[in-house]
Amino acid sequence: MNVLVLGGYGLIGDTVIGRLLRDGHHVTGLGRDVRDAGRRRPTVRWIAADMSKLLVAENWLPVVAGMDAVVNAAGALQDGPRDRLDAVHRGSVAALVAACGQAGVRRFVQISAIGADLASANPFFSSKAQGDKAVASSSLEWTILRPGLVIARTAYGGTALLRALAAFPGFIPAVMPRQPIQTVAVTDVADAVARAVAGPLPSRLALDLVEDNARPLAEVLSTLRAWLGLPPARVVPMPAMLGRLAGAVADMLGIVGWRSPLRSAALAAVARGVTGDATAWNQVSDRPLQPLEATLADMPANAQERWFARLWLAKPVIFACLSLFWLVSGVIGLMRQDAAADILVSHGVSASFAHIAVLAGSAADILVGAAVVVRSVARRALLAMIAITLSYLVGATLLVPGLWLDPLGPLVKTIPALCLVLVALAVLDER
Fold first, then answer.
1. More confidently predicted of 84 and 297
2. Most exposed of 36, 166, 186, 358 (fewest Cβ within 10 Å)?
3. Which residues form the NAD(P)-binding domain (predicted)?
4. What is the Cα gyration radius of the chain?
5. How far from 199 is each of 18, 24, 141, 192, 369, CA to CA, in Å?
6. Mind listing the pLDDT tens digit for each residue in 390-415?
7. In whole angstroms, what is the distance from residue 190 CA to residue 184 CA?
8. Integer CA distances (angstroms), 104 to 8, 42, 60, 96, 220, in order
9. pLDDT value at position 347?
10. What is the C-alpha separation between 33 and 14, in angstroms, rounded?
C-alpha cells in the first residue's frame, strides 16, 4: 500500500515508518524539516511541509493523491513560536480528512492522546479531541489510537525527562510521585498502526493503548533507574510549588523556542494521571500490550543511555552558564573598558586600537550571550562563540603573548570555556 505518515521522524512516527517498510508498504513521510530524516531513511519519500499552514482540503490534495492510507503521528504539546495547537491538532486534521475523502483514501489512523477530551480546560487535550472528532465524523475507515506513556529506545520530551530524573545522583526527585501511569511500548503502537493500515483491526474504533495495570510515577522512575543499571535510590517527593515554578520557567523558555517537557501542559497531563482502559484493545487483539518491565527488557540499556540520561538535565545548566558567562564578560568589559584597554596598552598596543578592541569584544560577547538562549539561532551563537574565542586567543598571542603567563590566567581559562561550547553543540539537537 501507499501510506502517508505525518510526523514521520518523531518518537512514534519513525518507529511506525520502520514497521510499515518491513511490512512491504511504500511510505511517504511529512514534516517541517525532513533533511535529517531523509538521511536516516533514504528509502522513504519525504515531503517538507508545515501542517499548521495546510488548513484547507486543497492544500492537502497534492499530498494525499495516490495514497491508500494516512497515519497522523504529528502533534505538539503547547503553543509557542514553532507550534500552534489548534492549527496542528484540529484545523489541519479537519482539512486532511476532507482531502482524503475527495482523493479516495480509504484508511486513516489517528494517533491521539490519553485524556483527549472536548471539555478539557487544557488546550492540548481539547484540541486533540477536536481532531479526533473530525476523524470520527468522516466516512473514512478510521482508527483512533490513544497511547499512554510511550517507551522507546529513543527518548524525547517527557520520556527523556523521566530518564534524567531516574539518573539523578543520590536520589530521585519527583513532583506528584503518586500519580498513576500506564505505559506502552512504541513497538506495540507501531504494531497497532500496522494492523489498522492493513486491515486486521476493525475500523471505526477508538482504542486506548496502555499496559493492563497502572503504577505510580515513583515506581516508573525506580524501574527506569534499574534499567539504566544505576544503584537503587529513594524517590524524594518535590513540593508542588517547585513544579509550578519549573513549569513557569519552561513556559518562558517556550517563548524563545525551547520545547521543554516541564511546561505547564505536561505537568497538567501528569496531574490528571496518564491512564486509560485496555479493555477495548484486549477485545480486538490476540495479545495484551506488554508491561513496562517487558518493554525495557526488550531494549537493554548501555553506556549511551546512561550518558543521555545524565547529560539531559545538565543541558539547560550548560546553556545557562554559557549565556551568563558571555553576558557578564561583555558587561564588565563595557563597565571597565579603560582598565581592559590599559592591559593591552601596557603590552604595546596603541590606546585607540585598544579601546576599539575592548568595545567590539564586549558588544560581541553580549550579543552571543543573549542569542544562545534563543533556540532558532542557538547553533549560530555557539559557532560564533568558538570563532570569537579563537580570534581572541590568536590575537592575544600575536599582540600580547605574555598574557599566557599571567598569574590570573585570562587566556588559559578560555580553553575550558571553549570546551563547554563544544559540549553545548554536541547536545543541542532535540531529536
1. 297
2. 36
3. 7-194
4. 26
5. 18, 15, 10, 10, 54
6. 998 898 888 778 778 877 777 888 89
7. 11
8. 22, 27, 13, 12, 44
9. 67
10. 14
CA-wise closest residue to 160 among 18, 17, 11, 302: 11
User: 173: part of which helix (H) or strand (E)?
Assistant: strand 172-174
- What Cα–Cα distance (Å) separates residue 8 from each residue in 12, 20, 305, 338? 8, 11, 23, 56
Whether the CB-CB separation of 349 and 400 falls below 8 Å is answered with yes
Q: Give dist(CA 366, CA 354) in Å, integer.
A: 18
The three-state secondary structure class of 11 is helix
Q: Which residues are within 8 A (CB) of 109 and not within 5 positions of it... i.e. 6 or more apart?
A: 69, 70, 71, 72, 142, 143, 145, 193, 196, 197
For the chain, the farthest-separated pair of C-alpha atoms sits apart, in whole angstroms, at 84
Could you give the CA distance from residue 264 to residue 52 in angstroms, rounded to a whole number?
22
Classify residue 88 by its DSSP letter.
Answer: I
For the record, the C-alpha cell of 308 comes out as: 543521555
Q: Which CATH number fits domain 2-152+181-213+274-300: 3.40.50.150, 3.40.50.720, 3.40.50.300, 3.40.640.10?
A: 3.40.50.720
* Helix, coil or strand: residue 145: strand
Query: b/e map of 192-210 (b: 16 or more CB within 10 Å)?
Result: bbbbbbbeebeeebbbbbb
pLDDT above 90 for 334: no
